[in-house]
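New to this. Help decode both lines:
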Amino acid sequence: MWGRRRRDGDEDEAAVEETVEATSTASGSDGSGEDDEAKSDRSGGPLDESEVDLDEARKGRVDLGGLLVKAAPGMKLQLQVDQRTGNATSAVLAIDDAAVQLIAVAAPRSSGMWGQTRLQISQDAQRRGGRAEEAPGPFGTEVRLVVPVQAPDGKQVLQPSRVSAIDGPRWMLRATFLGKATNDAATFQRFVALVKETVVVRGQSPMAPGDVIVLKPPAGTRPPADPSQPLQA
């Protein structure tokens, strides 16, 4: 399984999230530095709230506010919380020893963000002593990372991950595949299908490019006794 690392005053994230910090996805709050790539082909999903009947879409999905995620047999769901703001910023969908982490951020209406974002991801991985390479993925170009992280037992291990992103209307959904989802084709496709079934609910409020679309626990979920722990759903 993937390691976890705690940072003082910061959220308890899957360790790969240090490499792909949600709040650094844009090169500037004014949207400068974005690439001229065409937006992602979303013919197979994920979907925008405007493209579905939300009442129907919620059937068979877990409502996390900013995301509706497909429920799957054996799936465990964690929301990672930013302790500085108290907001849930990402969802980790795990089945056995594989997982995908989903983060949705606001994006400009006119252009995508993924080109600049993946450059930042690669640079950060190299700064941390890891390696990164771009390759074709299910949603276009993806970044494949191998980064040193601290395992739960305190040892340094190399953690592989595959990072994809999908540019939608005024949002970008980033999917980081972890564990067995990085090296087993059937498992990877199972998690790709979960990403495609996701519905992004950005809302109409003004947001700067790169701002995280906040998530919320499903109805009836109790917060953990230790606020430093991720929310279980």
Observations:
- The chain has three helices and 14 strands.
- Helices lie at 54-57, 114-127, 185-196.
- Residues 56 and 87 are 27 Å apart (CA to CA).
